[in-house]
Write a structure and sequence with these properties.
- There is one protein chain.
- The protein is mostly helical.
- The chain has one domain: ABC transporter transmembrane region fold (Up-down Bundle), CATH 1.20.1560.
- Helix content is 83%, strand content 0%.
- It is built from 5 helices and no strands.
- The protein has helices at residues 13-27, 31-64, 68-116, 120-125, 128-149.
- α2 packs antiparallel against α3 and α3 (68-116) packs antiparallel against α5.
- The longest helix has 49 residues, at 68-116.
- The chain is rod-shaped and about 80 Å long.
- The mean pLDDT is 83.
Length: 151
């Protein structure tokens, strides 16, 4: 049996990348969701750029040329593009939030399973509050990173 060691709270720069690789192991089962979220992100970015061009056409063809038909048609296109942008943003936000929830649930389950299998002397060396903090607070921070900041 190995001797249990206290929790190490210091992060070394070279080890930070290995932590991301371990996190990827929890995201791997949801690759398809991640791909769809990426597609929604690219779609929304493209539509956002198109809205700028739509406003340019609205001003040039509708307002400057004083053409009511072109003004109406271009305004409808800009509104349609705005609807597409809202739908793409909704899809991206929903998928990334769902991904954050699932990865956090899987991570908490893995940490709990690991804790249950630990030798009792581990719990004598480490404070129970610090262990609970790792189980709840740290995984919640990862959920925020994956579910909000990642997108």
């Amino acid at each position: 049996m190995s001797v249990p060691t206290p929790l190490n709270t210091e992060q070394k720069p070279a080890r930070s990348f290995s932590v991301l690789l371990k996190l990827w192991a929890f995201m791997r089962p949801y690759k398809l969701t991640l791909i769809f979220a990426g597609i929604a992100l690219v779609f929304t970015a493209g539509v956002t750029l198109s809205i700028g061009q739509g406003v340019r056409v609205l001003v040039d063809d509708g307002l400057v040329a004083s053409s009511p038909q072109a003004l109406t048609r271009t305004a409808q296109v800009v509104l349609l593009l705005s609807l597409f942008m809202a739908l793409g943003t909704y899809a991206r936000f929903y998928l990334v939030s769902w991904l954050g929830e699932r990865v956090t649930a899987d991570l908490r389950s893995a940490v709990f399973s690991h804790l249950v299998g630990m030798h009792p002397s581990y719990f004598e060396l480490n404070k129970s509050g610090e262990i609970m903090s790792r189980l709840t607070t740290d995984t919640s921070l990862l959920q925020n990173i994956i579910g909000s900041s990642f997108s």
